[in-house]
């Protein structure tokens, strides 16, 4: 049976895309970061692109211990070597306080072992940046468990990982000042292309939906990031000292565009910003004192308004319930 796609409102979308193409300069950068001595931070998807730049800025300018969560052992080892070389050159810092954990967000079976390995190694967690993601893969791409690849990798995988890490994050937050412990859900301005309420509930894997394009599937996965950021506190009242926010890092020239056409890649080389600027957005969300729970942040460190329907409790609650139910058997 064919199911027509129900588009969400685009109110505010033109302003969001204009700001993405013509962003203001970052105002919260290296010189503004706290030292973070003794803090532990997880950055997922940090072997390239924005995640790599986030790890580099943290390791080069703070004293935090940074964990890279990624799916490819060789890429992780190469990324660490590159970090060591570039940080020694750019920041004159030779010793990096860095750890790594292998995880594949497209395979829910890998999440628990990865989380358990981290929990065996650390007794605190101050910040997690859910940066890993995939954008517009070939049509029909699925996770190991059969979910549409972006739904699984961008939403379900991070949701499951967060559930394993919540107890330690909450425990650590009790030793921090309010707002210093944070969960960062990397969304996208593409959430404006998501269905009404953020999710195509009639056909969440887009297998029988008519009138939908690749951007709508990606938009759904990123709308879920916004819904997750706003649903976390309702599910965790004991985490009142933790700040949970979502963001669009910016319109960036990174490996996320690897599935784009040659024309899209050419235009991107002219229109898109370097990955480091996306790192400024993510670290604004992770470290700036201006940020508060429920915020949505756009390039390169500006608190703005996401699509209005994604702030409605009924949509937030329904998304959270779905994600919880889908990952329950993997806990």
Labels describing this entry:
331 residues; alpha/beta; Rossmann fold; eight-stranded mixed sheet; globular
Give an overview of the whole structure.
With 331 residues, the chain is of the alpha/beta class. It has a single domain, classed as Rossmann fold (3-Layer(aba) Sandwich), CATH 3.40.50. Helices cover 41% and strands 13% of the residues. It is built from 9 helices and 10 strands. The strands form 2 sheets. Strands 4-3-2-5-6-8-9-10 form an 8-stranded mixed β-sheet, with helices on both faces. It has a two-stranded parallel sheet with strand order 1-7. α2 (49-61) crosses α3 and α4 (111-121) runs parallel beside α5. The two termini are 34 Å apart. 48% of the residues are buried. Residues 263-268 have low confidence and may be disordered.
Radius of gyration: 19 Å
Query: Which strands sit side by side, in order, in the main sheet?
Result: 4-3-2-5-6-8-9-10
Helix/strand/pairing class, anyone? alpha/beta
In N-to-C order, the SSE pattern is: EHEHEHEHEHEEHEHHEEH
Query: What's the CATH class, please?
Result: Alpha Beta
Question: How much helical structure, as a percent, in the residues?
Answer: 40-55%
Cα end-to-end separation? 34 Å
Biggest sheet features: 8 strands, mixed
What number of structural domains do the residues give?
A: 1
Q: Do you know the CATH topology? A: Rossmann fold
Name given to the CATH architecture? 3-Layer(aba) Sandwich
Number of helices: 9
The count of β-strands is: 10
Low-confidence stretches: 263-268
Question: What is the 3D shape?
Answer: globular
User: What average pLDDT do the residues reach?
Assistant: 94
Q: Please indicate the percent range of residues in DSSP E strands (runs of 2 or more).
A: 5-15%
Q: What is the CATH superfamily classification?
A: NAD(P)-binding Rossmann-like Domain
């Amino acid at each position: 049976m064919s199911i027509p796609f129900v588009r969400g409102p685009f109110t505010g979308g033109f302003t969001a895309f204009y700001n993405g193409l013509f962003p203001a300069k970052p105002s919260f950068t290296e010189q503004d970061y706290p030292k973070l001595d003794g803090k532990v931070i997880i950055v997922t998807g940090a072997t390239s692109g924005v995640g790599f730049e986030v790890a580099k800025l943290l390791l080069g300018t703070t004293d935090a211990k940074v964990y890279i969560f990624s799916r490819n052992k060789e890429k992780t080892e190469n990324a660490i070597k590159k970090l060591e070389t570039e940080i020694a050159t750019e920041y004159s810092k030779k010793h990096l306080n860095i750890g790594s954990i292998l995880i594949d967000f497209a395979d829910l079976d890998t999440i628990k072992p990865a989380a358990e390995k981290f929990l065996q190694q650390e007794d605190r967690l101050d910040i997690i940046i859910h940066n890993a993601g995939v954008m517009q893969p070939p049509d029909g791409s699925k996770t190991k468990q059969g979910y549409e690849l972006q739904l699984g990798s961008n939403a379900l995988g991070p949701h499951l990982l967060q559930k394993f890490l919540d107890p330690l994050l909450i425990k650590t937050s009790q030793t921090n000042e309010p707002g210093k412990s944070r969960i960062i859900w990397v969304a996208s301005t593409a959430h404006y292309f998501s269905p009404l309420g953020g999710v195509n509930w009639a056909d969440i894997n887009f297998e029988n939906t008519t009138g939908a394009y690749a951007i709508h599937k990606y938009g759904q996965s990123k709308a879920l990031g916004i819904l997750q950021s706003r649903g976390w506190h309702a599910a965790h009242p004991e985490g009142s000292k933790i700040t949970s926010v979502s963001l669009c890092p910016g319109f960036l020239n990174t490996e996320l565009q690897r599935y784009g056409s040659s024309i899209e890649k050419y235009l991107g080389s002219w229109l898109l910003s370097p990955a480091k600027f996306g790192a400024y957005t993510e670290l604004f969300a992770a470290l700036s004192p201006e940020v508060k729970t429920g915020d949505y942040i756009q390039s390169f460190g500006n608190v703005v308004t996401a699509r209005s329907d994604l702030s409605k409790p009924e949509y937030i609650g329904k998304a959270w319930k779905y994600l919880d139910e889908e990952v329950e058997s993997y806990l």
